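In this section we walk through a basic example: taking a raw amino acid sequence and producing a predicted 3D structure, encoded as discrete structure tokens. The instruction is simple. Fold the sequence below.
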Amino acid sequence: MGNRLRIKEILRERGISVVEFADKLGIERQNAYNVFTKPTWQRLEQCSEILKMPISDFFEKDDSEINGYIEYRGTIYRITDMQSFQILSDIIRNSNKQMKK
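The resulting token sequence is shown next.
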């Protein structure tokens, strides 16, 4: 499931370095790269406050009929159609089965 994040691109457009951004987040520079690839919802909220823009603007837009994001166990999944929703449902169902064993 693609969650093309635009945070790094937004920083570049605004002339903000990764070092500056990491400092504003209160993290080490090398940890900032996790924000560009697999951020938590809390980290996205923090980025939203720092960059003064809605979280939805961090994600690439498309023409999908369904468009949403769901965080499950620290990973954010993008839902763009019934198939991607079903895939996430299967992930959750399988995870719950594993936990019961």
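Looking at the output, two observations stand out. The chain has five helices and two strands. The two ends are 27 Å apart (CA to CA). In the next section we compare this with other chains.
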